[in-house]
Structure formats: C-alpha cells, structure tokens
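To illustrate the input format used throughout this study, we show a single complete record. The first block contains the structure-token representation of the backbone; no residue identities are included at this stage. The design step must infer an amino acid for every position from geometry alone.
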C-alpha cells in the first residue's frame, strides 16, 4: 500500500509558483525524488486558480514519509513556505490494490 498526498499551496500573486520554482532550482525536488521510498514528487498548476500550485507526493509507506519528514530538507521546505507566506490544504490517500471494475474505464 502506498501513500498519496495532495498538497495545494496557496499564496498571493505568484508566490506559490515562485515557491515551486525555487524548490526546483535549489535541487530540493531532486533530493526528495532520490529519497528511499519516494515514488512521485511533482508540481502542477491548476487552470482555474493561478494563485496556487498542486504537489502530488507519493511514498511507498508511512515509514518512508516519516524519514522524509525528519530529514534536513523539511527545514528548507518550511523556510521557503514561510518566505512565500503560503497556506496549505492537504489531502491524504492510501492506495489499495486496483479495482478490476475500474479497468474498463481506463484507456492505456
């Protein structure tokens, strides 16, 4: 079972996109992607809300996420969130095995 986390960063003007850009430019994103247990770490811009950024963050398990939360990168992330004065909305999902009934709706 993996953990999927959606974090919507919300800020004034371009603050959320500037935050994501600095995360990428400072190589923090690549460091997170290279952490053991990280499956996905990607930013997306919602079409209808240019003041926010969506992070899709996926981990193999809770233990991998806990290790990430205790890493020095979290201090850098928190510092950047403060710098850009961002609010957050977080949703957390736990994946289970794929439902075979869903397969018929998926086009590969």
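Output of the design step:
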């Amino acid at each position: 079972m993996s953990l999927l986390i959606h974090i919507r960063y919300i800020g004034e003007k371009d603050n959320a996109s500037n935050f994501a850009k600095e995360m990428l430019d400072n190589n923090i994103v690549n460091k997170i992607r290279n952490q053991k247990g990280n499956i996905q770490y990607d930013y997306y811009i919602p079409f209808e809300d240019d003041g926010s950024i969506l992070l899709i963050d996926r981990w193999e398990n809770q233990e991998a996420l806990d290790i990430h939360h205790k890493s020095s990168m979290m201090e850098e992330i928190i510092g950047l969130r403060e710098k850009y004065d961002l609010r957050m909305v977080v949703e957390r999902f736990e994946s289970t095995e794929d439902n075979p009934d869903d397969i018929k709706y998926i086009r590969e």
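Structural context for interpreting the output: The mean pLDDT is 92. Helices lie at 15-25, 28-33, 62-69, 72-83.
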